[in-house]
């Protein structure tokens, strides 16, 4: 802009994350992100004193995250990410407790492990995708990025193994269920349920066809159909297809008779231009929302966007 400086350009990354977070959290509430459970698992056992340990878990650790994903894909294995920082005392404590144990060596069977500096470029990208804000953290995914396990922070070895073994078992059952589905014939509720769970596991590519199916299935009730459209638009945005997301959310806005759903859909529609670097269009949509819904519970958040998107005159 020639005569103006727009706050949007200064704050675009954080503003877009904030907008997406608002829409995604509404879709996933109350808590569809994969949650850890608490089974009975043996505590970590130390190895014999004479057992040679050539590397953590006696495994071959990849040099970087991209290489880890490539190796895992080639071997049909999972990726084990360990996030740390240079000055993280808990990272060293975690490593001292996990690395020498037989349990850790057994855990890494069928995985390609990699250490990632949380403050590196690849660390920041992964942290943004999986909402990781602290070190140490441990993330296990498929090579394509579907979440299997995530622990932010570290308490003790027993707690770690309880959670990881529980989530691994739950994931295997979930993966079998997904693999057995014929998406084109799924009942609406099953299509929506598994699509929502896949979205919660950050697998937007597999979530999309199931949410699409739920939105058009002959047995879909209005509530399921509308929730599926809302989730479908969110998945399309995560897959960087804003044009299709716009069509989907416009379909929901035109069809719903539920005031709450319409407000959420209009908020989602307003955030699409943010991903396309069109601040003026986003600002117009947020202002329209403010005018059309003066009593909305989202109004305070909308006004935050309006304030940040308002152009500021440069001093003459």
Characterization of the model:
By secondary structure, the chain is α+β, with helices and mostly antiparallel strands. Helix content is 57%, strand content 10%. The longest helix has 23 residues. The protein is globular.
Secondary structure elements and their pairing?
Layout: E1 4-6, H1 7-28, H2 65-75, E2 78-84, H3 89-98, H4 102-107, E3 111-117, H5 121-130, E4 137-141, E5 147-152, H6 157-179, H7 188-200, H8 204-216, H9 222-238, H10 242-255, H11 259-275, H12 279-292, H13 299-309, E6 311-313
Parallel strand pairs: 2-3
Antiparallel strand pairs: 1-6, 2-4, 4-5
List keywords for this structure.
single chain; 316 residues; alpha+beta; 4-stranded mixed sheet; two-stranded antiparallel ribbon; 57% helix; globular; disordered N terminus
Question: What is the compact description of this entry?
Answer:
The protein has 316 residues and is an alpha+beta fold.
Pattern of helices and strands: EHHEHHEHEEHHHHHHHHE
Question: Segments where pLDDT lies below 50 for 5+ residues?
Answer: 1-14, 30-44
Radius of gyration: 22 Å
Total DSSP E strands: 6
Largest β sheet strand count, sense and barrel closure: 4 strands, mixed
Q: Compute the separation of the termini in Å.
A: 15 Å
| Bulk shape | globular
Number of helices: 13
Q: Based on the structure, what is the oligomeric state of the protein chains?
A: single chain
Instruction: Kindly state the percentage of residues in helix.
Output: 55-70%
The average pLDDT value, as a whole number, equals 86
Strand content: 5-15%
Going by helix content, strand content and strand pairing, the class is alpha+beta
Looking across the biggest beta sheet, what order are the strands in?
3-2-4-5
């Amino acid at each position: 802009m020639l005569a103006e400086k727009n706050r949007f350009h200064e704050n675009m990354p954080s503003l877009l994350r904030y907008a997406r977070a608002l829409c995604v959290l509404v879709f996933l509430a109350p808590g569809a992100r994969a949650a850890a459970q608490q089974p009975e698992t043996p505590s970590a056992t130390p190895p014999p004193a004479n057992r040679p340990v050539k590397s953590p878990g006696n495994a071959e650790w990849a040099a970087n995250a991209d290489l880890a994903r490539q190796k895992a894909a080639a071997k049909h294995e999972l990726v084990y990410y360990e996030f740390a920082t240079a000055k993280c005392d808990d990272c060293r404590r975690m490593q001292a407790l996990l690395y020498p144990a037989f349990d850790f060596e057994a855990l890494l069977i069928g995985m390609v492990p990699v250490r990632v500096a949380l403050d590196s470029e690849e660390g920041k990208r992964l942290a943004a995708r999986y909402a990781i804000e602290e070190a140490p953290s441990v993330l296990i995914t498929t090579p394509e990025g579907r979440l299997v396990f995530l622990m932010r922070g570290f308490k003790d070895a027993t707690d770690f193994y309880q959670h990881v073994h529980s989530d691994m078992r739950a994931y295997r059952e979930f993966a079998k269920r997904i693999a057995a589905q014929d998406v084109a014939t799924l009942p609406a509720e099953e299509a929506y349920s598994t699509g929502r769970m896949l979205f919660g596991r950050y697998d937007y590519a597999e979530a999309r066809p199931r949410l699409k199916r739920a939105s058009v299935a002959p047995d879909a009730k209005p509530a399921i159909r509308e929730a599926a459209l809302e989730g479908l638009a969110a998945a399309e945005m995560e897959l960087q297809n804003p044009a299709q997301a716009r069509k989907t959310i416009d379909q929901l806005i035109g069809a719903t008779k539920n005031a709450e759903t319409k407000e959420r859909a209009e908020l989602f529609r307003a955030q699409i231009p943010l991903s396309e670097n069109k601040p003026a269009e986003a600002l117009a949509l947020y202002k329209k929302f403010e005018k059309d819904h003066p009593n909305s519970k989202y109004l305070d958040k909308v006004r935050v966007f309006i304030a940040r998107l308002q152009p500021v005159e440069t001093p003459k």
